[in-house]
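Please fill in the sequence for the structure shown.

STRUCTURE ENCODING:
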């Protein structure tokens, strides 16, 4: 069992067509053919979208993504056209809505790792590799890697696991030239973000990006007529949902690290206090304390990274 505890009904807005409800975002298309991406306050854990929302989470993700897009623009173009609220949209969409270019998204989660943890640690403990890349002996949970590595995964539907794959499999799916560009761009963006975060006392342990292709118009607006295909950074970027952020002054390899994300949610769900049986039940609602502490961690990540107050 997995997926949504209760899938929300899409909001109807004149001039917008609802396309998709994801774990966190709702996707619409406007009359110009652009995408309208609305970040909700939903939170997911263990392949479930939980019944309890985290106030302000959607705005944190949106505002932080915009902050990062500005700092990465010289490395890779992004999909954002505007953060203005579409006409007729509900007021509570304000601050969590982006109007974006429509891209041909590539079927790859582009993961960069600078530290060993999560699914990478689990694979390393079995094979001393991550996505087929050999790593040195003696690494533990939280170890810094000799150099950042590109460890791609396949995109999974809601309620299913992303599956780590080799670079060769990515090349088979998208072609050798695009695979090389994905790897190079992913590692360049990670390195830039890692250095920015480090200056603010935060370790960027790993993160994932999504990219798509955009064709710039040729004489007839198509690739065949001379249009140029370019790689564009899409979705969200470098948020606590897509990244592992650790406080640098508390980093200690050999144990799970404190983090600026939904770890409070995961810890509560797997504790005796929740009474949750992952094998046979939907997850229960979150207690107010867990909601408040999770919200505080998202906001702390925003404030420490951007150097600005949330309010």
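FILLED IN BY: designer on duty
SEQUENCE:
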């Amino acid at each position: 069992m997995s997926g949504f505890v209760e899938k929300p009904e899409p909001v109807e807005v004149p001039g917008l067509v609802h396309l998709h409800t994801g774990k966190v975002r709702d996707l619409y298309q406007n009359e110009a053919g652009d995408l309208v991406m609305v970040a909700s306050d939903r939170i997911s854990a263990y392949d479930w979208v939980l019944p309890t929302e985290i106030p302000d989470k959607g705005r944190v993700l949106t505002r932080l993504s915009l902050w990062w897009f500005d700092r990465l623009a010289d490395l890779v173009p992004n999909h954002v056209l505007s953060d203005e609220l579409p006409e007729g949209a509900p007021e509570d969409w304000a601050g969590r809505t982006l109007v974006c270019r429509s891209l041909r998204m590539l079927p790859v989660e582009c993961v960069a790792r600078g530290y060993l943890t999560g699914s990478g640690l689990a694979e390393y403990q079995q094979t001393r590799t991550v996505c087929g890349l050999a790593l040195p002996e003696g690494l533990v949970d939280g170890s810094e890697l000799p150099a950042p590595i590109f460890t791609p995964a396949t995109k999974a539907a809601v309620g299913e696991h992303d599956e780590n794959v080799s670079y060769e499999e990515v090349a088979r799916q998208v072609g050798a030239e695009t695979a090389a560009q994905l790897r190079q761009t992913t590692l360049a963006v990670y390195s830039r973000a890692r250095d920015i975060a480090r200056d603010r006392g935060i370790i960027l342990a790993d993160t994932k990006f999504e990219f798509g292709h955009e064709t710039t118009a040729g004489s007839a607006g198509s690739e065949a007529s001379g249009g140029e295909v370019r790689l564009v950074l899409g979705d969200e970027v470098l948020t606590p949902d897509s990244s592992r952020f650790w406080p640098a002054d508390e980093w200690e390899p050999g144990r799970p690290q404190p983090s600026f994300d939904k770890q409070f949610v995961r810890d509560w769900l797997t504790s005796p206090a929740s009474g949750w049986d992952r094998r046979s039940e939907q997850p229960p609602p979150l207690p107010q304390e867990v909601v408040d502490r999770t919200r505080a961690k998202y906001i702390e990540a925003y404030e420490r990274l951007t150097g600005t107050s949330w309010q």
